[in-house]
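agent> Task received from the user: take the single chain below, predict its 3D structure, and emit structure tokens. No templates, no multimer pairing.
agent> Plan: (1) validate residues, (2) run structure prediction, (3) serialize to tokens, (4) report one or two observations.
agent> Step 1 OK, no nonstandard residues flagged.
tool_call: predict_structure(input=
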Amino acid sequence: MTTKMSRSAIDELLRAEGAGVLSLTDGAETYAIPESFGYDGTHLYFQFAHEDDSRKMAFLETTDVATFTVFTTDPAESVQARGRIEVVPEAEHATAAAAIAENATVPTMNVIPDTPVDDLSMAFYRLVVDSLSGRVFDDPIKNPTET
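)
tool_result: status=success, residues=147
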């Protein structure tokens, strides 16, 4: 059984967790990748390190509506944000950086280990949320239902 999360519980989870799964599409194929993120109460922010021929960046260009899922296992709960992904304007880079610094989980390994750092590009993006939903999953062992 699941219970809907309140908006304040959704915001709390998004501020507490620093990583989730970003799902993109090119219209025929889907591409889901783990990503660190920042949240400022309105937008989800990402800082992508990428090579020129990045599959992720190609999918970003073709995705009209992206989905970002954040979840925990104890307690079992999840939040799903849907909306468009856009480049963060340069004038708002400080806002993106602050949101990411506040709660993003920084990867502990280089996700592109064979590429020298000088060959990588960095870019700020944000998910402009059109819909936000959350669920709490009841634990049948902790909360058995009577029959």
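agent> Step 4: summary for the user.
Residues 93-103 form the longest helix (11 residues).
agent> Done.
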